[in-house]
Specification:
By secondary structure, this protein is an alpha/beta fold. Helix content is 25%, strand content 25%. It folds into 2 domains: 194 residues, Quinone Oxidoreductase, Chain A, domain 1; 147 residues, Rossmann fold (3-Layer(aba) Sandwich), CATH 3.40.50.720. Helix 4 crosses helix 5. Belongs to the zinc-containing alcohol dehydrogenase family. Quinone oxidoreductase subfamily.
C-alpha cells in the first residue's frame, strides 16, 4: 500500500496560520494519505494577510500545499477575481464582516472546474463556475469547496464580467427594485456615477425605461467622462461644482423630479442628490467614499417628507430573498452576452497583484476596476 507524505511549508506550520484558510488544508505538520484513495488539488498560490492594516503592507503571495477532495467537493482553478473596495476594507479591518486571521483575500470571482469528488453529479471538468453566494478567499489559484457552493454559468461570457457580476451589478439591480416602484418614464439621481455600481445603475435604469441624472466629482477630463456615461445611457451628467446653485431642479428640463436617489459618497455630494428628489422621494446610501456623514436639512424631512435608507448586499444575501440570487446573476450575464451591459475594467496578471492593488488604492491613477487574471 503506497502512501503520499505531505509536509506543510515551514512558514505555515504554526496553528494560527490555518484560521480562515481553505477547507481541507492540513492542520498537522505531516499528513499521511493513501495515494490510491484520495483526489488532491494542485498546490495553490494565494494572497494572504495575517493582520489588519494597509493592504499594500500586510498582504503577501504564498504557496499552499494540495488539499484533499471529499466526496462532494469540487476543485476549481480560478480564472479571474476583482479587487473591490470591500476587499480592501476587510484587509484594513474596518468592514463589519471579515474572515478570521490569517485569511486569503478576495470575495468573488470565476473559475473553471478542475477536478471532482466521487459524489459530484451536477458539474464536469471544464465547466465555468462562480461562488454563489460569494465567499471569502478568491485570490488564490485553486479553491476547493462543496458542489453546492458553486453556480455553473455559460462559458461565452468574458471572464472579467463573470468574475465581477456578484457584487456590484447585483447591488445596482437590487437597489433599483427594492425601495421604490419605478415606472417607465420615472427618473433616478445618483452620485459616484463613474463607479462600477454607478455604471450598472445607468444601464439597468435605461433598460427599464427609467431616466438617470448623474453626479461626478470635478476632475481633469470630466467632459470625456460625461460623454462615456451618456454612451451608457445617462440622460444628464453634472459635476459637483455645476450643482452649487440654489435651484438645481431648473436643470431638469423635460425630466421628471427623481423619485429615487443613490449615494455612495456622503458629505456635500449626498446633499446634492437630496436636492433633486421629489416630494416623498427616497435616498439609498450604499457607500461613503468621502468618509463624511450624510447631513439632511430639517426642511427636507418636514416639507418634502424625504426618506433615507441604507443598502448592504451582504445583509441581503443573508435574507430569504437571496434564494433568487442565481436567477438574477444569470439575467445580468445574459445582458452582457447580448451587449447591453458593460463597465470599465482592467485585467492584471495575478503575479502582478501588488501593481493591481496600488491601482485599486488610487496610487497609480487608474480609475478602472482591477481584475486579477490567474
Amino acid at each position: 500500500m503506497g502512501f503520499l507524505r505531505l509536509v506543510a511549508p515551514k512558514a505555515l506550520r504554526a496553528p494560527s496560520i490555518f484560521n480562515g484558510l481553505p477547507s481541507g488544508f492540513p492542520r498537522n505538520e505531516t499528513v499521511s494519505i493513501r495515494a490510491y484513495s484520495a483526489t488532491m488539488s494542485p498546490p495553490s498560490k494565494a494572497v494572504v494577510y495575517e493582520q489588519h492594516g494597509s493592504p499594500d503592507q500586510v498582504t503577501r503571495l504564498i504557496n499552499l500545499p494540495p488539499v484533499e477532495l471529499k466526496d462532494n467537493d469540487v476543485c476549481v482553478r480560478m480564472l479571474a477575481a476583482p479587487i473591490n473596495p470591500s476587499d480592501i476594507n476587510r484587509i484594513e479591518g474596518v468592514y463589519p464582516v471579515r474572515p478570521p486571521l490569517p485569511a486569503i483575500g478576495g470575495y468573488e470571482g470565476v473559475g473553471e472546474v478542475h477536478s471532482l469528488g466521487s459524489a459530484v453529479r451536477g458539474l464536469s471538468p471544464g465547466d465555468w463556475v462562480i461562488p454563489s453566494p460569494p465567499s471569502f478567499g478568491t485570490w488564490q489559484t485553486y479553491i476547493v469547496k462543496e458542489e453546492n457552493a458553486w453556480h455553473k454559468i455559460s462559458k461565452d461570457i468574458p471572464m472579467e464580467y463573470a468574475a465581477t457580476v456578484t457584487v456590484n451589478p447585483l447591488t445596482a439591480l437590487r437597489m433599483l427594485e427594492d425601495f421604490t416602484e419605478l415606472k417607465p418614464g420615472d427618473c433616478i439621481v445618483q452620485n459616484g456615477a463613474t463607479s462600477m455600481v454607478g455604471q450598472c445603475i445607468i444601464q439597468l435604469a435605461r433598460i427599464r425605461g427609467t431616466h438617470s441624472i448623474n453626479v461626478i466629482r470635478d476632475r481633469a477630463g470630466s467632459e470625456e467622462v460625461k460623454d462615456r456615461l451618456k454612451e451608457l445611457g445617462a440622460d444628464e451628467v453634472y459635476t459637483e461644482s455645476q450643482l452649487e446653485m440654489k435651484n438645481v431642479k431648473s436643470l431638469l428640463g423635460n425630466l421628471p423630479e427623481p423619485a429615487l436617489g443613490f449615494n455612495c459618497v456622503g458629505g456635500n455630494s449626498a446633499s446634492l442628490v437630496l436636492k433633486f428628489l421629489r416630494q416623498g422621494g427616497t435616498m439609498v446610501t450604499y457607500g461613503g467614499m468621502s468618509k463624511k456623514p450624510v447631513t439632511v436639512s430639517t426642511s427636507s424631512f418636514i416639507f418634502k417628507d424625504l426618506s433615507l435608507r441604507g443598502f448592504w448586499l451582504q445583509k441581503w444575501m443573508g435574507s430569504e430573498r437571496a434564494k433568487d440570487c442565481r436567477v438574477m446573476i444569470d439575467y445580468l450575464l445574459d445582458l452582457v452576452h447580448k451587449g447591453k451591459f458593460k463597465y470599465e475594467m482592467e485585467l492584471v496578471p495575478f503575479d502582478d497583484f501588488h501593481v493591481a492593488l496600488d491601482k485599486a488604492l488610487g496610487k497609480l491613477g487608474s480609475h478602472s476596476k482591477q481584475v486579477l487574471r490567474f
